[in-house]
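Narrative of accomplishments. A recurring question from our advisory board has been how the design workflow behaves on a single, concrete structure rather than in aggregate. To address it, we present the structure tokens for one chain from the evaluation set, followed by the sequence designed for it. No filtering or post-editing was applied between the two.
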């Protein structure tokens, strides 16, 4: 499939989606005609996920329902192969801090080596989300911390329910 510069992929594990992810997805949806949120579906990766892929899809679908040009899909291949399959010319990710930069530089080099025709585009995190990551939210929820405003409401409810058990 020829690559289309109007299609972008926003990839991630999204375990679960946070308001920081949503910020990047929303900003991407204003830049591209079609944004495909690509949820990693590798059960063996990073010791597994708290939420199943179906739950993660539902959270992302619910949170992006107001964005008509955003689609939600899963992938279990290399990210660049998924982007090629979808005809996406860009992979859009958020960058929060220097710590993200090192990891993302590595991912960028690896992806670019596999598929030089696909560009990675980085959006700087909005300051209010620059500290936010899914693992931090899960840790807060585990110990009864306040997670309101960090994740969509439906996600907050499920997190409290799942982690308090
Ligand atoms: O930080 P995340 O959410 O776990 O990132 C997931 C993803 C897919 C964006 C990141 O692992 C990446 O950029 N991977 C590129 C290498 C690849 O294709 N790996 C296979 C899919 S995990």
């Amino acid at each position: 499939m020829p690559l289309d510069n109007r299609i972008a992929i926003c990839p991630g594990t999204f375990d679960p989606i946070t308001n920081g992810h949503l910020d990047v997805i929303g900003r991407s949806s204003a830049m591209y005609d079609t944004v495909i949120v690509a949820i990693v579906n590798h059960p063996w990766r990073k010791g597994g996920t708290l939420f199943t892929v179906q739950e993660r899809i539902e959270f992302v679908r619910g949170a992006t329902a107001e964005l008509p040009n955003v689609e939600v899909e899963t992938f279990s291949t290399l990210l660049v192969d998924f982007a090629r399959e979808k005809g996406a010319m860009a992979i859009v990710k958020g960058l929060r801090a220097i710590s993200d930069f090192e990891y993302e530089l590595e991912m960028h080099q690896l992806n670019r080596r596999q598929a030089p025709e696909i560009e990675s585009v980085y959006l700087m995190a909005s300051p209010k989300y620059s500290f936010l990551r899914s693992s931090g939210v899960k840790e807060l929820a585990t110990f009864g911390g306040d997670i309101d405003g960090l994740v969509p409401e439906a996600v907050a409810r499920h997190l409290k329910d799942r982690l308090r058990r």
